[in-house]
Amino acid sequence: MNQKTYSVVPGLNMGLFSPKDLEEIVTIINKYNVPMTKITSAQRLALLGMDEEEQKKLKSELQPLIRPVATNGVHYVQACPGSQWCKFGTSDSLALGARIEQLSFPEPLPGKVKIGISGCRMSCTEPYVRDVGIFATKKGWTLVFGGNGGGNPRLGDKIAEGLSDDQVVDLVRKCLTVYQQKAKYKSRSARFMERFGIDAFKEAVLSE
Ligand code: SF4
User: Fold this and answer.
1) Fewer CB near the last or first residue (10 Å), C or N of the chain?
2) What domains are there in the chain, each with its CATH number?
3) To test ligand 1's pocket by mutation, which of 120, 125, 134, 142 has the most ligand atoms within 8 angstroms of CB?
4) What is the reported pTM?
5) How far is the CA of 4 from the centre of ligand 1 (A)?
6) Among 27-36, 53-62, 86-95, which is the least confidently predicted range?
7) H or E element in which residue 78 lies
8) Among 110, 181, 178, 112, which residue's Cα sits nearest to residue 149?
9) Cα of 201 to ligand 1 centre, how many Å?
């Protein structure tokens, strides 16, 4: 067993499994004697300590139970249980996450984009330190852009608040389009916002 072999299975429906799906996943994992598993911060399933050939076979068996990899360049969309499952939730973060996962762009995005969506202002998915952060208040959705939780952290800038589902989806599309058109290759949104400036960015995304 190679302790260092590490493989990530993409797309587990924003961290949600039905008990039946979970049971099937565990059955497959046990069949291949996976030494250890981990749910990553991106809410994906990591398989640890496996032989490479065995990983390939296991992944093909898991395929029907996982979501396809997003082709829009978004690294991940993380959504909390929201109003569907959490007593504090005022808005449906899971449904919004599913819509935002479907956004597509004509060109690849310049850098990794992590999106965090929270169904109330307690912000369990840490939206202020995501490239795109969204949280609900009683007035609607608030959108922040340009946050980062890495080695050079930055709080995102508030772009708009009191948004409906349609308005926030549209504004996410506009923010990522401006980022795609104006940011340098490999520049994360936090560094882009420091260079581009919040005023110019707001003018670009809110002017229509
Ligand atoms: S952000 Fe609010 S709705 Fe979402 S899990 Fe946390 S407390 Fe619940």
Assistant:
1) C
2) 6-65 (no CATH), 74-206 (3.30.413.10)
3) 120
4) 0.88
5) 35
6) 53-62
7) strand 74-79
8) 112
9) 29
Rounded CA-CA distance 117/179 in Å is: 19
Q: Which of 135, 140, 139 is nearest to 125 (CA)?
A: 135
C-alpha separations of 47 from 20, 37, 64 in Å: 20, 5, 17
Closest to 201 in 3D by CA, of 139, 119, 131, 141: 131
Closest CA to 143 of 110, 179, 117: 117
Residue 208, SS3 per DSSP: coil
Residues within a 6 A CB radius of ligand 1 = 80-82, 86, 88-89, 118-120, 122-124
Top mutation candidate among 78, 87, 124, 142 for ligand 1, by most atoms within 8 Å of CB: 124
pLDDT tens, residue by residue, 51-65: 888 888 888 888 877
Task: Please name the residue that has the structure tokens 């690294």.
Answer: 75
Q: What percent of the chain has pLDDT over 90?
A: 58
Query: What gap in Å lies between CA 191 and CA 204, rounded to an integer?
Result: 17
